[in-house]
Amino acid sequence: MNLIRKVLTTLGGILLAALLIAALAPKATRGLAAAMVQVVNTPSNPVPYFDVNNPATEPFDASLCASHNAAVFGEGFSCSASGAFVVPTTTPDGRAVTRAVIEQVSGTCVTFQINFINLSLFRASGGHPPTYIPNSIDTGANSIGNSVFSPLVKMYLNPGETIDLAFTPGNNGDFVCNVGVVGHLVAQ
């Protein structure tokens, strides 16, 4: 009987010691970590922080246009923008651009033709395949067809690169296409 009592007393003591260590150890560890890391910046001198993955920080857009014999469509159908743009090398606030990301291309094409107009964005320097923009033209016989498109794309560009908008018309070469490119700049 004495042996059982001695064993239970010893086990109870060990259990009590384990509970005390478990209860006190996390607080000691937190106290040690808090003593090792101290931020001493004041509100007038905060820790620098910039979310480089936020596309809203440096939005980017460009307008592109191409046409052939636009006069056949009459008044109001013309190009007011170029068929190419150069990726900026600096942001409006003067920081160096490390990358430009095109995320969406939208626009409209007007033509007399019945088949597709193949649109693509490509680098003037070459070396990369073009990014094709899906669209379709819906025309009846001898009427003007209109294509409106707005696909999501993902195209990564280097600062200073020239990007061209290429049009490959089908059977009738008369067309006017206005395209907007939207994305963001990644800056240092």
| The CATH architecture | Sandwich
Q: Which class do the helix and strand fractions yield?
A: alpha+beta
**CATH class label:** Mainly Beta
Question: Strand portion, in percent?
Answer: 35-45%
**Euclidean distance between termini CA atoms:** 78 Å
What's the SSE pattern?
A: HEEEEEEEEE
Query: Taking Cα atoms only, what radius of gyration do you get, to the nearest Å?
Result: 33 Å
Largest sheet: 5 strands, antiparallel
Count of all domains: 1
Strand count: 9
Question: Could you list the spans in which at least 5 consecutive residues all have pLDDT below 50?
Answer: none
Provide an overview of this structure.
With 188 residues, the chain is an alpha+beta fold. The protein has a single domain (55-187), classed as Jelly Rolls (Sandwich), CATH 2.60.120. 19% of the residues lie in helices and 36% in strands. Strand 4 and strand 5 form a beta hairpin. The longest helix has 35 residues, at 2-36. The termini are far apart.
What is the topological layout?
Elements: H1 2-36, E1 59-68, E2 84-86, E3 97-111, E4 118-123, E5 131-133, E6 145-149, E7 152-157, E8 162-168, E9 175-187
Antiparallel strand pairs: 1-9, 2-8, 3-6, 3-7, 3-9, 4-5, 4-8
